[in-house]
Amino acid sequence: MEEEVELCFPQLLNSSCKKPKRPQLQLVATFMVLSSITLLTTTLNLLVIVSISHFKQLHTPTNLLLLSLAVSDFFVGIFTSFQMLLIDGCWYLGDFMCVVYQYLSYIVTSASIGTMVMISVDRYVAICDPLRYTAKVTYRRVQLSVSVCWIFSTVLQTLLLWRNLERPGRFVSCSGECVVGIDYVSGLLDVLLSFIGPVAVIVLLYLRVFVVAASQARAMRSHVASVTLQGSVTVTVRKSEMKAARTLGVVVVVFLICLCPYFCVTLTGQDALLNPSSVAFVTCLFYFNSCLNPIIYAFLYPWFRKCLRLIVTLQILQPDSSEANVL
What we know:
Elements: H1 24-54, H2 61-83, H3 94-128, H4 133-136, H5 139-160, H6 162-166, H7 184-222, H8 229-268, H9 276-299, H10 302-312
Protein name: G-protein coupled receptors family 1 profile domain-containing protein
Domain G-protein coupled receptors family 1 profile: 44-297
Main location: membrane
């Protein structure tokens, strides 16, 4: 006797998708992981957003980039919750909501990656050309750059998904499926602008940063015997730059570890050949990057820990709390 096939929509016998057979333990584990990622990502990034937006001392060009990153990663966390609807392999919210979900998630993901590129440029100028940093990186220029990043992400994804937006469900083969489709040329353009290009820029800039940091370290060692008061200040500055360089190294490694598997699988079409557990792991790893970003970029800064104490103790509600000294 043949085993009964479970459908996403039993009332639609001829058009419903079949539920993929997955172990119950895997479904529970995936749900728990995605729930944890959603909670951590939204909470941590919301704390960063509140801190930078509220305290006036934090209204700097670099922190504006961190704010943009936190906003995009916050929404990535929100959209991760929709991924939980697909745990059993079925989408129950209809074709229109499917396209809206995919469209918005692509925009915020693209904006998050674009903001990481801008942060790498900011750190590159700060470490490699510190004397002209304040003249090159102004608050107004960063505001413009952030706006362009979000507008570019929106326009790019609108063009790539236009056929899906025009007719939701165009590429759906059965009820309960949530997919979007783009042609080969558009897909190649998306790969270049959303993955290969940003990764290349980030890696090249960080390599240059490490070269500069290494040369500074050699200079520090060669002049350590004749340190004057001015020299000690220079040594302190260079140590700070070295610390920033090491932090950037962590950023690069985490970024590549989280994003590369996902893009490699989706771009080569291997997602159809991998088992569901592998696909779920790659997807969770991709979303987990947005949870790690606030930890890497914000938790390593003392000012964030001060802001966190003020927020948790509700001192942020006091009059003139925005003027508090958090640096």
